[in-house]
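Input.
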Amino acid sequence: MQAPFTSIAVFGPGLLGGSIARSIRERIPECDLRLWARREQPLELARQQGICDKTYTDPIAAARGAQLIILATPIAVFEDLSRRMLPAIDRSAIVTDVGSVKAYVHRTTGDTLTERGRIFIGSHPMAGTEKQGLEHSSSQLLQGATVALTNPHGAADCMVERLAAFWQALGCSTYLMDPTNHDRTVARISHIPHILAALCARGAITGNTPMTDLQRLAASGFRDTTRVCEGPAGMWADILWENDVAVRGALADCIRDLHYLSDLLENQDRQGVLNWLEEARTARQTVRQSCPISRP
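Output.
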């Protein structure tokens, strides 16, 4: 099968950008792959590990001639980076991103590019770990992941299908969404879980429990529940800031539910507590049920 793109530039070879680059090298080896980074250090590592020989700190040089440009830097960098490389972006090329917030990206970067005649379609691979950096990237990170695609700027269907074919070539499934609906959804299944993991970690040391006791008794439940909050604080602060409306709405629901549970306990309503826990168990099982692969 012919590759969807013969030249791809990945901007930001961190955990996700590096994993995408590794997957491209493994699954589309004939592709002309370029990597851009602000610093030379991750590019040197990419060359040493055979991920990519074409590396750049100049965004214009990296973008020139690329059929697909993937923004994998922090979201706050997208718009400025897009403006800098704009002269080198071909009008037939597709620019996408891998940010976990979509409405903000389309209001800023998407508007900047489409108002100047370039094609922008959002992407969000539902993949990641609490680790950071190219050294923790893996070609396996994307295997089986769902990639949400967002297209409020009205790129042609053939362009959306071409971008979907790229993600599918990397072993992903794709799912076309409205950006606002995307942000509301990830607030509840990604951003709120991160906040609650952080709350559990903070709660463990709030109070007068001796640290030695905490350290001796913390086992798999604490480890698994709090794992994600070890992710980079700066990145997550940006995510919560950029998706604040959806996050605040979901937080309000969580706070109401916690008050409800507290009231059940205060009223000695054991059956109510049991029902609350059973509803949570059913909710997890329902959300985690496999869904058919959806493509644009």
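The first strand starts at residue 7 and ends at 11.
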